[in-house]
Amino acid sequence: MTAVQAFKKYLWIFVKYFSVIFFSFIALLPIVSCVITALKTKTEYENTSVMTPPENWFNFENFVTAFRDGGMGRAFLNSALIVICVVVGSVLIGSMIAYVLNRFKFPGNGLIRSLFLFATLLPGIAMQVATYQLMYQLKFIDTLYGYIILSMGTDVISIYVFIQFFENISVSLDESAYMDGANYFTIFYRILFPLLKPAIVTCAILKGVGIYNEYYNAMLYLTKPDLKTVSLALYTFTGPFGNQYNLICAGVIMTLLPALIIFIAFQNQIYSGLTAGAVKG
Question: pTM for the full model?
Fold first, then answer.
């Protein structure tokens, strides 16, 4: 190996590790500052910089105050109910639509797929007027079931993830079951659906995290205090006379933990679900 080749090799190694360290620092800096702020008293926060360590690293008073005064308990229950219902509904709807589009060839199949792709190009904010009018006429505003039905709408990403998985499942399974007397519903629920576990976990996590963090629609359609979600509960400590960022950061940390725990527990399924459908076998 010549000196030039050695220099290029070690330069490339330096660039790779430097990039990893730099972007990791950029990603972790907001979280670290949020944790530091959450552990400070009001006086400390007002008289120190953001990255100044707190005097007491075991000061959890802000977490207790945020949970109690922000109504976090009720908000967690509402968010959990919404996420569970939306995830279950979205997985069932998305997988069934993908099953029909992949296994049945009929006139308009390609058109439907194209319309799904076209729908992703439409900005959601541009359709809010029509959506709000529809929600109002159906009396879905300020109801959990109305918000759940709205959030359970067609998830194009989930549909295409399921379609890619169906591409990797041999049609001979369907044909064998059909020859044995199974109908299409039996083939789907008893044979194909259990094989979609990686895709189900992937879509469930992606959809669940999105709904869990949703603020705009929740603010628009859930205006009653007893219906607020965790994203709305964080705004309890904002107002015209100032924002209590030490309490807000404590609430952010509490809302972050459930999603973080679920992601760590199912990260292998998420990664396999995102990549397995990319290769046909």
Answer: 0.81
